[in-house]
């Protein structure tokens, strides 16, 4: 099949056979990804990725930039049963068991999504709920237009609390690491 049909449920097996536009699947439902991101989006992604990649040199955690498939499932992880496949802008995985040649199997430790006009609802609602449900420890929503970052962290009850909001002149400490600070003045 070349392109998925709306209002039909899909799995990772279907996803692997699509040949045209790029989609993500959340709970079996398809969401078309934007065409190539804007230049500003790419600069911000590169700047954050550089901070994380530099910090992780010689450490066990790995960082990946999109396109990188993250497969999530409540059942088993066979291709026929995976109903959620997303491509976060930046994904950090600290458990090697979650990595294979096709991407990640299971929740990442840290995810960054950079909002584009077409992804606002998906990033602020769908993916926020999804990442919280699957236990992503830290989720950043980066807004290039407003030059701010919302940081969601899993609390002791296993849910995201209120986000911390950082502006362009702030530094953010990545909570899953002891001493990684990201200076937003160098990001935006």
UniProtKB/TrEMBL annotation:
InterPro entries with a match to the protein in the record: Nuclease_put_TT1808 (IPR012296), Restrct_endonuc-II-like (IPR011335), Uma2 (IPR008538)
Putative restriction endonuclease domain segment(s): 14-180
Protein name: Putative restriction endonuclease domain-containing protein
Top-rank taxon: Bacteria
Database matches in PANTHER family: GLR1098 PROTEIN (PTHR36558), RESTRICTION ENDONUCLEASE DOMAIN-CONTAINING PROTEIN-RELATED (PTHR36558:SF1)
Coiled-coil segments on the chain, per record: none
Source organism: Clostridium homopropionicum DSM 5847
Family annotation (SUPFAM superfamilies): Restriction endonuclease-like (SSF52980)
């Amino acid at each position: 099949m070349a392109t998925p049909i709306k209002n039909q449920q899909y799995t990772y097996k279907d996803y692997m056979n699509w040949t045209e536009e790029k989609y993500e699947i959340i709970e079996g439902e398809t969401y078309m990804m934007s065409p190539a991101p804007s230049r500003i989006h790419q600069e911000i992604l590169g700047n954050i990725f550089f901070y994380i990649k530099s910090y992780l040199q010689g450490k066990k955690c790995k960082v990946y930039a999109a396109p990188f498939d993250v497969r999530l499932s409540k059942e088993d992880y066979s291709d026929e049963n995976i109903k959620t496949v997303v491509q976060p802008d930046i994904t950090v995985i600290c458990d090697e068991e979650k990595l294979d040649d096709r991407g990640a199997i299971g929740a990442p430790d840290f995810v960054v999504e950079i909002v584009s006009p077409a992804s606002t609802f998906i990033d602020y609602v769908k993916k926020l709920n999804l990442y919280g449900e699957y236990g992503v420890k830290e989720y950043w929503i980066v807004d290039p237009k407003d030059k701010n970052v919302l940081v969601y962290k899993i609390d002791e009850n296993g849910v995201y609390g209120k986000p911390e909001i950082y502006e362009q002149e702030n530094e953010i400490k990545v909570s899953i690491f002891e001493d990684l600070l990201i200076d937003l003045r160098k990001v935006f």
